[in-house]
Amino acid sequence: MSNMIAYRNHNMLPETRFFDEFMRPFFGSMQQDSMRVDVKDEGEHYLLEAEIPGAKRDDVHVSVDDGVLTISAEWNSEKKDAKDDKRYVINERRYGSVERSFSVDNIAEDQISAEFTDGVLKLTMPKKTPEEKTPRKIEIK
């Protein structure tokens, strides 16, 4: 699991991408609008569950590129109606975006599957099967 590390900056040098902790706060603190993520090791795969309340399935995007898995969402739950020209006294409808990225070097990227239900994104991420290394004798010439 130490190979799957959360980070938010895609431009980080490769040697700075690997830390002892799985998830580290960006600049020391988690942003309040940051999506909450749980990752479970379920043997042959990891199960990542990300809370994205208020988002619809079409608002959520998941991509993987060169060992980096990125989950992002953008939404605007404020509905403007031409008939509704009243002035708001309080308007707490949510709009904005959120993004999280993870290093997934030990994941079979082409086998990741996703499901989104009730504001929770579930990613099933199969682990890469380790290549068996067999010792071989090297002939000296």
Walk me through what this model shows.
The protein is mainly β and 141 residues long. It is 0% helix and 38% strand. The chain has strands at 4-7, 36-41, 45-51, 60-65, 68-76, 95-104, 113-117, 120-126. The protein is elongated, with a radius of gyration of 20 Å. The strands form two sheets. A four-stranded antiparallel beta sheet has the order 1-6-5-4, with no helix packed on it. It has a four-stranded antiparallel beta sheet with strand order 2-3-8-7, with no helix packed on it. It is built from no helices and eight strands.
Summed up:
This protein is mainly beta. Helices cover 0% and strands 38% of the residues. A hairpin with a 2-residue loop joins strand 7 and strand 8 (120-126).
Keywords:
141 residues; mainly beta; four-stranded antiparallel β-sheet; 8 strands
Strand order of the largest sheet: 1-6-5-4
Mean pLDDT: 76
Q: What overall form do the CA principal axes indicate?
A: elongated
Strand content: 35-45%
Helix content: under 10%
Number of continuous helical runs: 0
Poorly predicted runs are 12-32
Main β-sheet description: 4 strands, antiparallel
Number of strands: 8
Distance between the termini: 43 Å
